[in-house]
Amino acid sequence: MVKSEKAIERIEPTPPMAWAVTVLAWFIPGAGHLLLRRWIRAALMGGSVWLCFFLGMRMGGHMFNLSTGQGSSALLQVPPMIANLGSGALYIVCWLLDVGFADDLTQAARATYEYGNTFLLIAGLLNYLNMLDVFDIAAGRKP
Amino acid sequence: MRHLLVMTVFSVLVSIVFGAVAKDTPRERCLYGLKVFAEFMVIGLVLGWILYFIP
């Protein structure tokens, strides 16, 4: 009993700043680490996400949103859309400019089309990992 | 050749993030990142050769 009370006392509340930095890390990949002055991590992890995203676009990949598909097939777009959304502002800007959402046959015929899709999905998923890392550092749970 | 290049780029980028997120010391992170990279490459090549012989 005494031991568990001590364990409860040791749990510190998460600072609100940690949540704010995490949201920033989602919105601009690498910015969270920059704000925490983790320069190398920002360059490596943020740079990986940016590079992955632009290579995916360059290879002709396309991103997912709910506007494609009809009926229940729209629901099939949700999981990849969540992965794409991880890219934060990159996804939002492309969505606003309607860049990278076209799914025409000439684009799909490119040899690197599926590679591009995968790179775009992975860019978002890697940024989710970046967010978790930023949160842990900001909350003092990671050195 | 281009497929191998794309796979290598993919492996490098993912390994960097995996290595940076995991473990505690810089040395452990480097080793883990290299291990993940090697696993990506070896498994990718093995799967590629297996699928090559499957019609």
Question: Which terms would index this structure?
Answer:
heterodimer; A: mainly alpha; 0% strand; elongated; B: 55 residues; mainly alpha; 2 helices
Give the arrangement of secondary structure elements.
The complex is a heterodimer of chains A (143) and B (55).
Chain A: H1 2-10, H2 16-27, H3 31-35, H4 39-58, H5 73-76, H6 78-85, H7 89-97, H8 105-108, H9 113-138
Chain B: H1 2-21, H2 26-53
Could you explain how this protein is built, in words?
The complex is a heterodimer of chains A (143) and B (55). Chain A is mostly helical and 143 residues long. Chain A has helices at 2-10, 16-27, 31-35, 39-58, 73-76, 78-85, 89-97, 105-108, 113-138. The mean pLDDT of chain A is 87. Helix content of chain B is 87%, strand content 0%. The chains are: A mainly alpha (143), B mainly alpha (55). Chains A and B meet through helix 4 and helix 9 of A and helix 1 of B.
Please count the beta strands of chain A (DSSP E, at least 2 residues each).
Answer: 0
Largest sheet of chain B: none
Number of helices of chain A: 9
Order of helices and strands of chain A: HHHHHHHHH
Average per-residue pLDDT of chain B, rounded, comes to: 92
So what's the overall shape of chain B? elongated
Beta content of chain A comes to under 5%
Q: What is the alpha-carbon Rg of chain B in Å?
A: 13 Å
Oligomer type: heterodimer
Q: How would you characterize the largest beta sheet of chain A?
A: none
Give the N-to-C terminal Cα separation of chain A. 30 Å
| Number of β-strand runs of chain B | 0
In short:
Chain A has 143 residues and is mainly α. Helix content of chain A is 68%, strand content 0%.
